[in-house]
Design goal:
180 residues; alpha+beta; Beta-Lactamase; 2 domains; four-stranded antiparallel sheet; 5 helices; 4 strands; elongated
Length: 180
C-alpha cells in the first residue's frame, strides 16, 4: 500500500466515523424521548398553607378555651409544622404529631379508624403496626384534588371530637373543598 492509498483510506475512515457519529446524534434524541419512564407528579402542601391551617386550628381551639398543640405532617409522615399554644400540656405535642401522622399515612380521620378498631377486634393489631400511629379522634387527612397531601392533628382539647373540630377549621381555611 502506498502512502497515497494510506491517506485516502484514512480519510474514508474518518468520513465514515463522522457519518456514524452524526447518525447517532440524529437518531438518539427520538429514541431517548420514547425510552424514559415519566416521573410521577405528586402535589404537596406548601409551607405557607400548612402554617395557615395550623394557625387557624390553634386559634379556633383557643377561642373555645382549649390550649392545644397542632401538627401538620407531609404525606410521607415528615413534620411540616408544629405549634403549641401557651399552657398546652407537654403530652399534646406527641399526640398532635401522631394523629397527623396516622391520618396522613392511612388517609382517613383518626376517629373513624379508632371506631373501626373498636368495632372489629380482628384489626386491633393495627395499634401495634407503627409506634407513630395514634388512634384517637383529632387527626384528619388534608385532601386536594382527590389526593391526600398531608395530615393535621390536634391534641389537648377536652375531647377528641373538639380536637377534630379545630383540625377541620384549619383544613377549611385552605379552601380545597374536598377534605374528608
Amino acid at each position: 500500500m502506498t502512502i497515497q492509498q494510506s491517506r485516502v483510506n484514512g480519510k474514508v475512515f474518518f468520513v465514515m466515523l463522522a457519518m456514524m457519529m452524526l447518525s447517532a446524534l440524529v437518531i438518539s434524541p427520538s429514541v431517548a424521548q420514547d425510552s424514559p419512564e415519566e416521573l410521577p407528579q405528586q402535589p404537596i402542601l406548601p409551607l405557607s398553607m400548612a402554617m395557615q391551617a395550623a394557625q387557624v386550628a390553634l386559634e379556633t381551639c383557643a377561642d373555645n378555651g382549649y390550649q392545644v398543640s397542632v401538627a401538620i405532617v407531609e404525606r410521607n409522615g415528615m413534620d411540616k409544622v408544629l405549634l403549641r399554644n401557651d399552657g398546652a400540656g407537654p403530652h399534646t405535642i406527641n399526640s398532635s404529631r401522631q394523629k397527623a401522622f396516622t391520618s396522613a399515612s392511612m388517609g382517613r380521620p383518626t376517629g373513624d379508624i379508632a371506631n373501626a378498631i373498636a368495632g372489629n377486634p380482628a384489626i386491633e393489631g393495627l395499634r401495634d403496626m407503627d409506634d407513630r400511629l395514634l388512634f384517637l379522634e383529632g387527626g384528619l387527612p388534608i385532601v386536594a384534588n382527590g389526593q391526600v397531601i398531608a395530615g393535621i392533628g390536634v391534641g389537648g382539647a377536652p375531647g377528641g371530637n373538639l380536637d377534630a373540630e379545630c383540625a377541620q377549621a384549619g383544613i377549611d381555611s385552605l379552601g380545597f373543598g374536598d377534605s374528608e
